[in-house]
Amino acid sequence: QVQLVESGGGLVQAGGSLRLSCAASGRTFNSYAMGWFRQAPGKERDFVAALTWSGARTYYTDSVKGRFTISRDNAKNTMYLQMNSLRAEDTAVYYCAADPRPNRVLAGTSDYWGQGTRVTVSS
Q1: 3-class SS at 74?
Q2: What confidence score (pLDDT) does residue 48 get?
Q3: What is the pLDDT of residue 2?
Q4: What is the C-alpha separation between 30 and 54, in angstroms, rounded?
Q5: What's the alpha-carbon Rg for the chain, to the nearest Å?
Q6: Contact 108, 101 (CB under 8 A)
């Protein structure tokens, strides 16, 4: 079992930065692929970024490439999403996900999900 808790959301002006964290419990965290998804008001939940258990491979949706950076610290059981140059369209609830199978993280069908943290970008 893995439990995920997101934090770091808030209100920021366009062009600003935020860093989201996803704290995981469970002894097998180090072997799980992880990812970030977001759901804007009235829309479906979309993939944002993901990385493998070691962090050696990272994946991003096109709209955040060059602005967001996903990383993890396995010693702290925590994953991060550094978000720079934020835009109004980045406004959403951000969720972290974890699964031993990377393809399930990328597909949005992970076994484990957090409750989400809200990010609001004012223009």
Answers
A1: coil
A2: 98
A3: 87
A4: 7
A5: 13
A6: no
CA distance 80 to 7: 10
Sheet holding 68-73, edge to edge: 3-7, 18-25, 78-83, 68-73
Q: With the CA atoms of 78, 82, 83 and 85 taken in that order, what torsion angle do they form, in degrees rounded to the nearest 10?
A: 170
CA distances to 23, 92, 116 from 86, in Å: 23, 12, 18
DSSP state of 42: T
59 within 8 A of 48, measured Cβ to Cβ: no
CA–CA separation, 99 vs 18, rounded Å? 25
Give tens-digit pLDDT for 4-59: 999 999 999 999 999 999 999 987 778 899 999 999 999 999 999 999 999 999 99
Asked whether residue 96 carries a pLDDT value surpassing 80, the answer given is yes
The total number of residues shown for the chain amounts to: 123
Number of C-beta neighbours around residue 16 at 10 A: 14
